[in-house]
Amino acid sequence: MEKEVFAGAMAAVSQIENITNDRIEALTKSHGMTNIAAICAANAIATEVLRGVNIMLTDEDAPDLQIDDVLKKGIDAAVEAGADPANAALFAAVICYFAGSNAQAGVPAGNRKLGALARMAAKVPRAGVLAVPTPKNNNKISGFAAVQALYQALAEGRVTKVVGKNLPLGVAGGPLYGHNTLGEDMGFAEIAINGAKVATQGMIDAYSGAGVSPSPVISAILGVAAALEVVHPDSFVAEEYGDFFDVNSAYLAGKAACEVAGIPEKLHIRGTNEEYDAARVIGDMGVIIKDIGAPTVVGMMSFGEMLCAFQESIAIGAGFSGGPIMPPLGHMTADAIIALRCLIHTGNDKDKAMDIIANIKKTEWLDPEMAAIGANTIARKAEQVRRGPITHTIIAATDPARTAAIFYRAQKTYDDLKSGKSVEDVVKELDEQRKATVERNAAAMLGMMTGHKVEIKIQKVVGGARRSHPFTNSYYGFDTDADVDITVDGKKFQLQGLGQKVIPEAIINNDKDILGIVPLAAIPVTEMQLSGHTIINITVPAAVAAAMGIEEPAEAAKKCELGGKGCSAAIPGAKAKAKAVAKLAKKMMEAMV
Fold it and tell me: Which of 28, 60, 89, 162 has the most CB within a 10 Å radius?
């Protein structure tokens, strides 16, 4: 290997921040996103689970359980990473759930629920479902919509036929109601089922009214949580609904919410293909959210991203970190749950777990190479706060792809510069390759999903779609003017001005024909807009050019960012990163003389 190639590659990876434009240092203290805190909690909890600590909730007559200590360790790790205590409680509870804990167990004297235990361990007050926000998806709403819809229905007598004001003395509030026909067979079941349906629909309608695509899974979970604030959350129900000790009011609420939200009956973990009963998952998550306190919007964003560990995450509207689009690194949380389940599923066989994760990155993303590097970057950043088996597994699974990608770009830059090409042209070629990969894989994926032969060509992607400010003209990610040609079964559609013309007109006019085509263009363009998560197409060429002495670091950085204007330089920051690695590469060459 030529020394210049080695120096360029080493400079590029010398600091984690050098290969991304995302503000990942801010993530270590939860400024704007909380996924590093969630990953740190997963590291702490996985350490305990993999060494055999029992994390099950029981109703035994004891002041505490082993899971109390595990939850506390998870919460402490998240807080160490800057998480608000309420968010830390949420992360610890959900991660323990995916590690195998049950969501609830108990009788009144020792009534134990996972969300409540986590909330108390974090020392945060209960707030109620109405104070729980949804994740931000452009806009956001809150659980108030579920609570409002439910209480309106309750006041109108549309939830249960049991009329409370008719209950006689000795029945109201006692076991003749709560553990007999009137409660378990009638009132509790009706409130769980009808209440969850009404509350879930209330969430869906409020989402839509706020100009947000309704999230089925968040609507269902908050709908269940609202219903379980009213009904006895772990009551027995009539045998017609299921076996004793197996089906309770939370399960019925989860099942009803899934029906309204259109969530499939079964959910599956990526990689391991472990099957979950969706009604139980949604019911259990409702139990957790009901008791958890008041997580923030970004805390709920990380919660939604954890649910991307399910293969069905797109259909249920969980989040973005399950692919196929690679989101900003602050969203990448699903890998923590996937790694956790892989380690548990394989009996803590780290090699098998690594292979599973590596295969997911190769097969489930529009740009597998960049997806692997992005996961590697955020896991490495999380390790600056808290090391553990989760980050170790993710890093080991994605290091081969990262190494190959860095080496390829360093060697190509060296060869191309030797042949007389400019460093700007090298970056343009690398970004054209990146764009072609996205077009090809998006067409294949969307063609498979729709059953049609699809071809995609992004003809233009620049800034300044509707603004004249120099900033938006320079960085296309903030005001994207994109023209995309879509061919479906031989029929060509030219979508010109995708963001500023095609999409608004189709939405406002409810143009079904165009709306059916828009995703074929929007998905690959979005992948391009978010390309700043990994900028090795800019930083590696700059480092090699400086190492070769062809360009001074500042000039190499300037030219490389200019070359990446059509893809990797979607947002600002690449020039400064490129200059830093170029300066370092030059010093490395001086040291090797």
Answer: 89
> Is 70:77 a contact under the CB 8 Å cutoff?
no
CA distance 507 to 512: 9
The whole-angstrom separation of Cα 90 and Cα 331 is: 16
Q: Over the range 176-209, which residues count as b (16 or more CB within 10 Å of their CB) and which as e?
A: ebbeeeebbbbbbbbbbbbbbbbbbbbbbebbee
Strand extents, DSSP E, 386-526: 454-462, 481-488, 491-496
Cα first-last separation, the chain:
15
Question: Of how many residues is the chain composed?
Answer: 593
Token digits of residue 122: 């974090």
Report the distance separating Cα 312 and Cα 282, nearest Å: 14
Beta strands in 71-142 (DSSP E): 104-105, 112-113
For the cut 80, the answer to whether the pLDDT of residue 550 exceeds it is yes
- Please determine, for residue 108, whether its predicted confidence score (pLDDT) is greater than 80: no
Q: What is the pLDDT of residues 33-89, one digit of tens each?
A: 899 999 999 999 999 999 999 999 998 888 899 999 999 999 999 999 999 999 999
The closest alpha carbon to 19, from 320, 444, 376, belongs to 376
For 314, 367, 428, 468, 564, the CA distances from 433, given in Å and listed in that order, are 27, 11, 9, 29, 12
Amino acid at 316: I
Q: What angle do CA 65, 67, 72 make, to 5 degrees?
A: 115
What's the mean pLDDT when you consider all of the chain? 95
- Give the torsion sign (CA, 558, 563, 565, 569): negative
Q: Please, are residues 567 and 537 in contact by the beta-carbon 8 Å criterion? A: yes
- Tokens for 541? 């060429």
What one-letter code names the amino acid at 324?
A: P
Give the pLDDT confidence of 340-354 residue by residue, as tens digits. 999 999 999 999 999
What is the spatial distance between Cα 89 and Cα 330, in angstroms, rounded to a whole number? Answer: 19
Angle between helices 334-345 and 297-306 (to 10 degrees): 40
> What are the tokens at 228?
């379980």
Say how many C-beta atoms besides its own lie within 10 A of residue 266's C-beta.
14
Dihedral of the CA atoms 276, 116, 61, 176 (nearest 10)?
-80
- Find the range with the poorest average confidence among 277-281, 339-343, 468-472: 468-472
Give the whole-angstrom CA distance, residue 318 versus residue 219: 10
Distance from C-alpha of 590 to C-alpha of 593, rounded to nearest angstrom: 5
Report residue 126 as tokens: 């209960």
Indicate the pLDDT class of residue 246, thresholds 50, 70 and 90.
Answer: confident
**pTM given for the model:** 0.95
Angle of helix 85-98 versus helix 66-80 axis, rounded to 10: 130
Give which of 345, 348, 572, 382 is closest to 477, Cα–Cα. Answer: 572
Q: Tell me the two tokens of residue 523.
A: 């998905």
Query: DSSP letters of 227-260?
Result: HHTTS-TT-B--GGGS-TTT-BHHHHHHHHHHHH
Cα 479 to Cα 185, 378, 436, 469, 564: the distances in Å are: 57, 27, 22, 10, 16
